Structure formats: structure tokens, C-alpha cells
Amino acid sequence: MNRKQLLLSAVLGALGLGTAGVAAQAQEAAFPSRPITLVIPFPPGGATDVLGRLIGKKMGDLLGQAVVIDNRAGAGTTIGAGYAAKAAPDGYTLFMSSGTTFTINPAVRPKLPYDPVKSFEPIGIAGRTGLILLANKDVPASDVKQFVALVKAAPDKYSYGSFGAGTTSQFAGEMFFHAAGLKIQHVPYKGSAPAMTDLLGGQIPFTVDTVSAAIPQLKDGKIKAIAVTSAKRSALLPKVPTLAESGYPGLEMDTWLALVAPRGLTPAVKSRLEQALAQAVSDPETRDKMIAVGFEPAYASSKAVAELIDKELPLMRAIAQRAGITAD
Predict the structure, then answer these.
(1) Same structural domain for residues 153 and 117?
(2) Domain range enclosing 164
(3) Sequential DSSP letters for 76-130
(4) What is the per-residue DSSP string for 214-228?
(5) 3-state SS class at 134
(6) Distance CA 66, CA 2 (A)
(7) Which alpha helices (DSSP H) does 154-230 contain, by range?
(8) E strands present in the chain
(9) Is residue 10 included in any domain, yes or no?
(10) pTM above the 0.85 mark?
(11) Are residues 103 and 84 in the same domain?
């Protein structure tokens, strides 16, 4: 033990706590005393990875320990989520993901290596970003009307990429295509970055991705924006219309990114992490960086995360059943 821990141990011992209790209290008071691992269920370069690194860096500064990113991609976030759910509930393993993990996977996957509610301890929401339908620059479609006409004219010819089977990316795409009566093949990728690579190279003509992941390529004119799936236009892409504006009212979806830990954190450790997340999102420099890469800084408490999951779970199940969305 360091000096702080020894002093605390002596005080707790004087109060009559047992050896195990003293040790536990001392460790809790010293949290964090070593680096924290932040599991991201996507490969480097995607929206969740970008936000995770921004928030992780600032939280590490605030907590006095490094936050190390551990990318565990695949299976629509279930690989990373399953790994994080089984980690020790000591605050040294955190997990950041979107509604894909917490409300969509339960709607489209009959078996999961985690429970979206029981396996995790919510810490808070860090930010939100819209989703966007994108096209390769050589595709002869630049808006929703042209896109629908192109795909309808050649059933089964076109495909679109998502950042994973059963993710918000596929969910938003299938929701729109179902409403528009389109038949278009889904190509799932293990994350946003590889899907973007194939869109740029022309291996796939369309993708549904996050605004944050698309902005660099859109600014360089390497891809085209068809429409955003959020309720309102993105402040970073004010010229790109929403699906609702393009003739499909009621079709709205964005991506919210929540920070959680394995269920079972002590109140003191959970409070420490909640405070660090809230401070990180409110930090002006961090907020500017989030906005620059397409995120809306949108801190919400652990209680708000739990309420959002409870609200969205039945809605996602209903939409998945209606549109025939599966993880296959």
C-alpha cells in the first residue's frame, strides 16, 4: 500500500472493520491505481472508436491513469460486449457502444453472450451522431428520389454496406428500404472503416454510416451524401436533407454512445467514473474535438441510459419484426 492507503487502513482498523473490509475500502479510495481498459466493439477508425479515444483520453487525464483502448470487433458488437460483460466489476474495464449493443441486438439476435440490462452498469451517454446514406462518387444518384428510382429500375443489382449485421447502420438502412419498397442486398462489415474503404474503391455502391465517419470523405468529395436518417439536418452537413424531408416522414434514427461497466461496481467507483465522464464531455476542448468529427456532445446520466434502453427495446423489437430485420 502507498501512504494514503496505509493511513486509511489505520483509520478503518480503528473503527473496527475487518482486514478484508479494510483492504477493500483502501482499494476503493485509491481508485484508479492502474490503467483502465476501454473496450470498443469496432475496429479503429469508426465513429465509436473515434469518440472512445477522445473521451478516454480526457477521462484518463481527470482520473490520473491512462485509459487504454481495446478494439474487439465483430458479430454486431457482441464479441466486445460479451468480453466486457464477463470482466471483473472493479471499474478497470469499461465498454463503450451504441444502441446496437443495448437495444438492437436483443431485437434481432435470439442468443447473446450478455444481457443488455443485467450485464452492465450504466455510467452515462457521451454523445450522439446521425446516420447517413452514402454513395460512391460515380453512382448516378445524388438524392433520395434518384436513389429510389435507380434501385427500383434494377432489382437485385445493387448492394449496400453497413458496419455490421444487426447494427444501427443496417437497422436504419433496412427501415428506409422497407418503407421505400426497395430490394437491395446487405453487405455487413466488421466496422465502419472497412465499409468506407470498399465504398471509396467502388466494391459497393452504397453504405449507411455515421455522419462522423463520413465527414472527412465528404469534405474531400470522394463520396456523395444522399440523406441523413436523423430527425433534423446535421449542423455539419446543413445541405444534406433528412429522409423525412425527402418524402419519408417518421423514419428517424441516430446513434447514441453510452459508457458502461460490468454490473456490480461499488457506489464509490461508479460515482467516480460518472463524474469523470460528465467532466470530460463538458470540457470545452473535448467538446470542440467531438463536434469537429461529427458528434453532438450530449452527456446524460446513468439513470438516463437505463431509461433510454427500457424505452427503445420494445420499439426496436417492433420495428425489426415489421421490417423483417435479422442479424443474418
Answers:
(1) no
(2) 130-228
(3) GGHHHHHHHHTS-SSSSEEEEE-HIIIIIHHHH-S--SS-TTTSEEEEEEEEEEE
(4) HHHHHHTTSEEEEEE
(5) strand
(6) 19
(7) 168-180, 192-201, 211-219
(8) 36-40, 67-71, 93-97, 120-136, 159-162, 185-188, 206-210, 223-228, 254-262, 296-300
(9) yes
(10) no
(11) yes
Residue at a domain's end among 209, 228, 247: 228
Residue 289 cell numbers, joined: 474535438
Residues 6+ apart with CB under 8 A from 313: 102, 103, 106, 107, 116
Question: Which residue shows C-alpha cell 468529395?
Answer: 221
C-alpha grid cell, residue 279: 467532466
pLDDT in tens, 225-243: 999 999 889 888 999 999 9
**Residue type (1 letter), 135:** A
First to last CA, the chain: 51
Residue 75 per-residue DSSP state: G
Residue 283 lies in a domain: yes
pLDDT tens-digit map of 281-322: 999 999 999 988 888 898 999 999 999 999 889 988 988 887
Q: Let me know: does 263 contact 285? Beta carbons within 8 Å.
A: no
